[in-house]
Amino acid sequence: MPELVRLYIKNVIIGFFIALAFVGLLLGFNVGNLRHLIFTSDIGYIAMALLIVFNTIVFSGVQFAIAVMRMAEDDDSSGGGKRDGIPTNMAAEHLAIPVPVDTPKSRKQMQLRR
User: How far, in Å, CA of 18 to CA of 31, rounded?
Assistant: First the structure.
C-alpha cells in the first residue's frame, strides 16, 4: 500500500476517535439539550451516527492537513537571493525627481476649481 494512503487511513482513524470524544463531550455536557433530543427520540441513533460521521470527516481532514504540512522540509539555508549592491551606473536611473504640484490652499478653493 502506498505511504500516502497509509497516512490518510491512519489520520482517518485518529479523526474518528477525536470525533467520538467530541460527540461524547457534546452529549456529556448536554449542549443545546442535545442529549435529551437524541435519547428521547425513536430515531436518535441516526442523529448520533450522523454526528459521528460528519465530525469524523471534519477532524480527519484537519488531522491529515496537519500531518501533510508537518512533512515539509525546513528551510535552514540562508537563501533569499543575491545581496549584491546596485551598480552605480543604474543608481542614477532610480533617483526620485521632485515634481511640483499645484494644490489648493483650502476647501473653498477646491470647490471653486470644479
Answer: 17
Among 70, 72, 60, CA closest to 9:
60
Q: What is the pTM of this model?
A: 0.63
CA distance 21 to 17: 6
What are the cell numbers at 63? 488531522
The grid cell for 73 is: 522540509
Nearest by Cα to 54 from 79, 30, 84, 22: 22
Q: Could you report the per-residue pLDDT of 37-84, keeping only the tens digit for each?
A: 999 999 999 999 999 999 999 999 999 999 999 988 776 666 666 667
For the record, the C-alpha cell of 38 comes out as 437524541
Is 35 strand, coil or helix? helix
Cα(33)–Cα(11) distance, integer angstroms? 31
Name residue 90's amino acid.
Answer: M
